Every structure is written in C-alpha cells, then in structure tokens.
# Entry
Amino acid sequence: MTETQFQIQAMKYLRQRGHLAIHVPNEGYRTKREGAIAKKKGVLPGVSDILVLDLGCAIELKTENGVVSRSQDLFLRAVRSVGWTAGVARSMADVEELIERAKNAIE
# Structure
C-alpha cells in the first residue's frame, strides 16, 4: 500500500468515527519563490500527515520502509511538548492505537 492509499484509509476510518481530522498539504515540490511565500503564510516543515483536532493527536503516516525526516521528528516532539498525543503509524493498527492513547489522555 502506498502512503497515499494509507492516508485515504486512515481518514475514512477517522471520519466514520466522527473525528475532526485534517491533512495539511505540505508535500510536493515548490519553487524557491513559492516556498518563501508558503513560509510567510505559515507553512511549517514536518507537520504530520493527519491532525485529529478533537483529540489533540498528530499522526505521521509511513509505509513499512518509510523514514521519518528530521523536520517530522521535530514536529512530533513539539506537539507532544504541548500535551498532544503524537506518533508514527505504519499500519491501521498503529492509527487505532494512537487514537486510543489520545482518547485516554483527555479522559
């Protein structure tokens, strides 16, 4: 399964359960000019693939062999430091586990 397919599956799972989940489209190529404008507009490198706003949960999706970048790791650390649940998911079981941890953290 590709990361895109995984993301679609994870978003479907989250929305079917009524979560307010979003994707920040940080991926893709930008020219230097486009990158500078995006940065001024608030684009932050490394933002996780899925932010579950109602639970305070950031999920970085990776394929089995996918590597977490430095900026992604720094983002995960940053959101944990303000009380969010955050982690890397390589399977739907990982997504479900992160959601359960986030639910337990707010109860």
